[in-house]
Amino acid sequence: xxxxxxxxxxxxxxxxxxxxxxxxxHDSLLKTITITGVEVTNDLGLAKVFFTTTSDMDHKEVEKNxxxxxxxxxxxxxSQEIEIRHTPKIRFVFDNSVEYGNNIEKLINxxxxxxxx
Length: 117
Description:
This protein has one domain (3-116): K homology (KH) domain (GMP Synthetase, Chain A, domain 3), CATH 3.30.300.20. Helix content is 59%, strand content 19%. The chain has helices at 3-24, 28-31, 59-81, 97-116; strands at residues 33-40, 46-53, 89-94. Strand 1 and strand 2 form a beta hairpin. The longest helix has 23 residues, at 59-81.
């Protein structure tokens, strides 16, 4: 499938899932996550949903709970919101790029502090 079309579908899935998590969901875990990106496979069979969380729980535990408990609910809601022939299965993956960026920024600040001494 065309990569541009896959990116557009992934973007639409991300927007709809973000809206469902923020507005419609009653689960407190869904209220603590932020969707940072979506990658869709060529056959539209799987959508990897990248997320960050403000929850105090370990991100691996949050990821497990999302994949085990809420992925099917979100897939059902997603199928009602977007019009594609086959709604992909949803798999949540923790996006550590925010943590990585914060760590790099912290290291740069430490270097600047050492240079100014």
